[in-house]
UniProtKB/TrEMBL annotation:
Gene3D superfamilies: Glycogen Phosphorylase B. GO terms for biological process: lipopolysaccharide biosynthetic process. One of its GO terms (molecular function) is glycosyltransferase activity. It comes from Sphaerochaeta pleomorpha (strain ATCC BAA-1885 / DSM 22778 / Grapes). Residues 197-355 form the Glycosyl transferase family domain. Residues 17-181 form the Glycosyltransferase subfamily 4-like N-terminal domain. InterPro entries: Glyco_trans_1, Glyco_trans_4-like_N. Keywords: Transferase. This is Glycosyltransferase. It holds the Pfam family Glycos_transf_1. Signal peptide: none annotated.
Length: 389
């Protein structure tokens, strides 16, 4: 039995795209055929065990608390304590699912990390000083120390090759996917909209953007300004629905919304349960992802899989992930965002065509493919390690 250690630090206990990625992998690692040949062990605190391992019998847990309380603490834990745990627990392989956030420079077994993006090298003021120093000075060096690197888009692979100076053959693109068991078109949109009205007080047709409230990177401010322009020109009273927890400089986002002439129709839902995400997509007239930077942009595929029309910014990986059929816009232009909204919402034929194209596009991706390709990387690393001994 091959034993693989999987630290959960940096995955936000499931409350982020990286957390969704880790959960989807663990859900499948736990099942046949992988559970027959591999023994996976989650390394992390009790709260992560309770979230990621609920209902799972084939994945063990090694408890580590208070290793992630500060940037300095998690850095030293990953460099010194984690390698010691790998040796003591007898891991044949170390898998770091959030290697762009938590990464070690050496391990006594092969190490594979998923580097989702190098956003900090593109977005100024995204992180505080200590995080910025680590990401700009240490992250490229530590990334080069991994035996194999997984990333989620060609855009991110190009970044890793450029900034971390990693040979292309050591970086493999394995895309994410929308879980087909959760994200699919609703049978009765009226029932879904009624449920959204009862639970979230969404009383009008709505435009949706699901993301943590982080300014300026996630670009809520320009979306709100574009929504103002859209409402001034349209005859339909749409709402703008913005689920997601408050993060860096979220007060600036709320302030812009409060000064909007349509502030009563801008709804902040805060953090939402996974059970509500799919119906929020299904009930929306349009999903918008206006971000200045995404390593992948998983909500794009989730919305598409629900049959919801999507428009995105033309930044970073988003054109690659959203496909050639999707309308794109300059995220710094409120006017372009507004025009893309009107292009879809003011034309029924365009909306129906886009919905059909999006469903087909989302169907090209699956978590089963993602896991299969990930296991190939694991197996290759193990084989290389045997040859080297």
């Amino acid at each position: 039995m091959i034993k693989i250690g999987c630290p959960s630090f940096g995955t936000d206990c499931g409350r982020s795209g990286i957390g969704s990625y880790f959960r989807e992998l663990l859900d499948r690692f736990e099942k046949t055929p992988y559970a027959e040949n591999y023994s996976f062990e989650l390394i992390g605190p009790k709260k992560d065990r309770d979230y990621y391992l609920e209902g799972k019998k084939n994945i063990s847990w090694y408890q580590v608390e208070n290793a992630d309380n500060s940037p300095m603490q998690n850095f030293f834990w990953n460099q010194f304590k984690l390698p010691k745990i790998c040796r003591e627990r007898g891991y044949d392989l170390l898998f770091l699912p959030a290697a762009n956030r938590r990464i070690c420079g050496w391990a006594p077994c092969p190490s594979i990390g998923t580097v989702h993006d190098l956003a900090t090298l593109h977005l100024k003021n995204k992180y505080d000083f200590s995080h910025a120093v680590f990401n700009r000075n240490m992250l490229p060096f530590l990334t080069r120390r991994l035996d194999s690197i997984i990333t989620v888009s060609q855009f991110s692979k190009d970044d890793i090759i450029k900034f971390a100076q990693v040979p292309p053959e050591r970086v493999t693109v394995i895309p994410l996917a929308a879980d087909s068991n959760r994200f699919f078109p609703g049978k009765d949109r009226k029932v879904i909209k009624d449920r959204m009205r009862e639970k979230f007080s969404i009383s009008k047709p709505y435009i949706l953007y699901i993301s943590r409230l982080e300014h300026p990177g996630k670009n809520h401010v320009n979306l709100i300004k574009a929504f103002n322009l859209f409402r001034e020109e349209t005859s339909t009273a749409y709402q703008l629905v913005l689920p997601g927890p408050d993060r860096e400089r979220s007060d600036e986002i709320h302030a812009v919304a409060q000064t909007s002439p349509f502030s009563q129709d801008i709804k902040f839902l805060g953090f939402i349960d996974n059970a509500d995400v799919a119906d929020l997509y299904r009930g929306a007239e349009l999903f918008v992802l206006p971000s200045f930077f995404e390593g992948f942009g998983l909500p794009v595929l989730e919305a598409m899989a629900c049959g919801t029309p999507v428009i995105t910014s033309d930044a970073a990986s988003l054109p690659e992930v959203s496909g050639p059929h999707t309308p794109h816009f300059d995220p710094s232009s409120c006017e372009q965002i507004k025009k893309a909204m009107m292009q879809v919402l003011e034309n029924t034929e365009t909306r129906e065509w886009l919905s059909a194209q999006s469903l087909a596009w989302a169907g090209l991706y699956s978590w089963e493919k993602t896991v299969e390709q990930t296991m190939v990387i694991f197996d290759n690393a193990l084989k290389q390690n045997k040859k080297g001994k």
